[in-house]
Amino acid sequence: MAKIKGAIVVNTERCKACNLCVVACPKDVIALSKEVNDKGYNFAYMQNEDACVGCAACAYVCPDACITVYKVKVEE
Hints:
The chain is an alpha+beta fold. The protein has a single domain, classed as Alpha-Beta Plaits (2-Layer Sandwich), CATH 3.30.70.20. The chain has helices at residues 20-24, 57-61; strands at residues 3-10, 30-32, 44-46, 67-74. The strands form two sheets. The chain has a two-stranded antiparallel ribbon with strand order 1-4. The longest helix has 5 residues, at 20-24. The chain is elongated, with a radius of gyration of 13 Å. The chain starts with a strand and ends with a strand. The mean pLDDT is 94.
């Protein structure tokens, strides 16, 4: 049976480090980077890639639509 694995892509230049995606993620996948973007914000990134289930909670709460969520079938 195939397992669903999620992945997110964050538009780092649009991200303003509001932290809503970090709080909304039920699997603690997202964190704020120590690096900054061109505007001086610590952007969000996938900290724990293996835990992502593709629920898209992060994308729903992002006020600037910076996050794109993908779901991939993984054969076991």
